[in-house]
Design a protein that fits this description.
The protein has 13 helices and no strands. The chain is mostly helical.
Length: 340
């Protein structure tokens, strides 16, 4: 037993150190890459300028802009990936992702309404967050019995999924209506937001606070999530407060999704393929899976955004297009491997 625990800790340490180093390397690569490249030798002096509150050289100015966007991409990808892990644990469904319950559709209604009426950027963010929270509250009121838990994890999740699908359909109908009546001058920004775009993303503290709080909650409940995943019917008899855990997973994953969608729009596939890839690589133990998926999700979206802004530079692609083009074949490959 002690040998198993030591091996688990060793595997977790190696995995997390490797993913952390990959994240740092991706951040440096993102800062170097763009329409105007920055040589690696110029990164330390440019970084020193930024640390002293100066940006007098071209390298420092470019690094400042790219670093802000890269950090925004990392926190968004990490939030989506962590939300995906928690949503899959909540619904006990490997196809679940952060958007499955319609929160992104609610955020889209709020954000697109603000964009259509040309409100300020902070109003767009507030409207997106409010739309996601509103759908989350409606979903909880309509399907709260499904979140209480009980004997078969217990009553299943059919009511929760069905209610989320109906709310999502209603919100998407409103989105379609707004897109059909919006002036042409505003359609481009509305479509880019729908696809997922980081071109206007800035370094903000609130998404990081949400991510760290959610990560602390998830790690604290990792053992309970393992028990609920493996022994759903007997989880309550094993001392797991199933109802409390399910409600916590629902609200925390919803908050993560709302934070990510507010920052960057509806970026797809990150919360679906990254948890699957990490589960395939490190196993289903949530004590390792949760931090691994968080680091991997942030790194993946950071690299995808670097590709989005450099593939056809100086023109930039919405990062949601890149994640979809990468995510669809990767997910099909994962399904093929699991089937074999």
């Amino acid at each position: 037993m002690h040998s198993f625990s030591r091996n688990l800790r060793k595997r977790a340490t190696i995995t997390l150190i490797g993913l952390s180093l990959l994240a740092v390397a991706s951040l440096i690569f993102s800062g170097m890459t763009g329409s105007v490249s920055i040589p690696l030798s110029e990164i330390p002096p440019a970084l020193n300028e930024l640390l002293h509150g100066q940006a007098s050289t071209l390298a420092a100015t470019l690094l400042d802009l790219r670093a802000s966007r890269a950090f925004a991409a990392f926190v968004t990808g990490a939030a989506l990936s962590l939300a995906g892990v928690m949503m899959q644990a909540l619904l006990r469904n490997p196809l679940a992702d952060p958007y499955v319950l319609g929160l992104s559709a609610g955020a889209s209604v709020g954000a697109l309404a603000a964009l259509m009426f040309m409100y300020a950027a902070w109003v767009v963010d507030a409207a997106a967050f409010g739309g996601a929270v509103a759908v989350s509250m409606m979903l909880y009121v309509l399907a709260r019995r499904d979140l209480r838990g009980g004997t078969a994890a217990e009553a299943g999740t059919s009511q929760l999924l069905l209610t989320g699908a109906i709310l999502s359909s209603g919100c998407m109908a409103l989105v379609t209506l707004m897109l059909s009546i919006a002036p042409e001058s505003r359609l481009r920004s509305m479509v880019f937001w729908m696809i997922g775009d980081l071109s206007g993303a800035q370094m903000r503290w609130m998404p990081w606070l949400v991510l760290f709080a959610a990560l602390a909650f998830a790690l604290r409940n990792a053992r309970a999530m393992n028990v609920m995943a493996l022994h759903a019917e007997a989880a309550a008899t094993l001392g797991i407060r199933v109802g409390v855990l399910r409600k916590g997973l629902f609200f925390v994953s919803g908050l993560l999704t709302a934070s990510a969608v507010t920052s960057a729009g509806s970026i797809g596939f990150v919360g679906l393929i990254v948890p699957h890839a990490c589960r395939y690589a490190v196993g289903p133990d949530h004590r390792i899976l949760i931090p691994a998926a968080t680091l991997a999700g942030g790194t993946f979206l950071m690299l995808a955004d670097t590709l989005a802004r450099t593939a056809i530079a100086p023109q930039q692609l919405p990062v949601g297009v890149v994640t979809a083009l990468i995510g669809a074949p990767v997910f099909l490959y994962q399904l093929h491997r699991l089937r074999k």
